[in-house]
Fold these 2 entries.
Entry 1:
Amino acid sequence: MRKFLFILLFSFTNVTAQNCVFSGKIIDATTNEPIAYASIYIASIAKGVMTNDAGEFKIDVPCNNYQAKIQYIGYESLTIPIPPTTKTNQTILLKQKAFEMKEFTVNAKAEDPAFNIMRKAIVLAEYYKKQIKEYDCTIYMKEYFVVDKIPEIARLFADKEDLQEMKAGAISEILMEYHYVLSFTRLFLKVLFTITLQK
C-alpha cells in the first residue's frame, strides 16, 4: 500500500511541475525575411524573450493557456494564444507599420535639447536623493548571450537543438518589482560617510 501511494504521489508531482516549450520564428509578412530582436512577452507570468539573428526564439513556461504579445519597432503588434501543449512551434508573420510624421525643420547649429535635460538632471540629483525616503519601481533587464566555444561535456549531454541555439545566441527579458525604504541604519551610515569625507 505504501509503495502504491509513493508511486502515485511521484507521478502527480511530475505532471504538475511539467514545463511546455513555445518556440518558432518571426518573419516579415511581405519579404519573408527573419526579424531579429523581436520581442515575445507573456504578461500574465511577466516572462519574455527576444528572437536571435535568425528570427528564432524559444521560451520555457509552465503548461497553461497564455497570450503572448509579439512586437518590434516599425511593425504592427500581434497577440497570439499559446496552448498548453508540451511543444509548440509557430512561424509568426508581422506586418510593417506605416508612420506619418508632421513637418519639422532641422537646424544644424542648434543644441540637442537632450543636453539641457541632462544638465538639469545632474544638478538636481543630490536634491532629489534627500527628498525620497521610500519608493517602488519596476526594473527591466535585457540580456544577450552567444557561446563561442561549447565545452566537450556539453556536447555529450546537450540536444542538437540546444547546441544550435547556443551558437545562434539568444536574448531574454526580465521584469522585477523593487521596493526601497530608507532605514535609520542606512541614514546613519550615509551621514557617517559624509562626515568622514569632510574631515
Entry 2:
Amino acid sequence: MILIHWRDNFTARQNDAAMNEKNIRAILRKANLRCTRGRVDVLQVLLESPDPTTHEDLHKKLQGTGINRVTVYRVLETLQKSGIVHRVEAGDRIWRFAVCGRMHPGHCHPHFICRQCGKIECLKEFPMPDMPSVAKDYTVEEQEMYLRGICPNCASKIKNLKCK
C-alpha cells in the first residue's frame, strides 16, 4: 500500500517543472537511500529532463557542483537498483536514464526511438503490457519494450521535403 501511495504522489509531482529538494529527499528516503548531495542533484536533473539522459549529459549539467563523473555513475547505478530510474539502450551502446517511479528495477513504460534523429522518448502514457507466463524454471527479471519509427518532428520535415 505504501508503494502505491508513493507512486501516485510521485507521478503527480513529476509533472511539476521543478521538483523541490524536500520532495526529492522524500523519494530517496522512501527507497531507503541516504540523501546525499550527489543523489539529490542527479535526481533533480533527471526529473527536469523530458527524455532519457546519458551519463555524459548528466555530468555536463552538473558541472560546477563538485560532482565528478564516477559519482554520477555510482548514483545512477544506485537509483536504478532501487527502482527510481531505469536505463534505456537504443542500439548504440549508450545507456540513457529516466525516472520510473515504480520502486522496481525494470521498465515501467515503453520507449520510442526515432530512426531519423535517434531521439528516445518515454511513452509514459502507455503501461507495459502484462507478461504471459513463461516456461517452467524461467525467471523473468526485466521486461523492455522499444518502438522504432519516425518521430513527429522528423515526419513533418520529411513531409515538407516531399511537398517542395
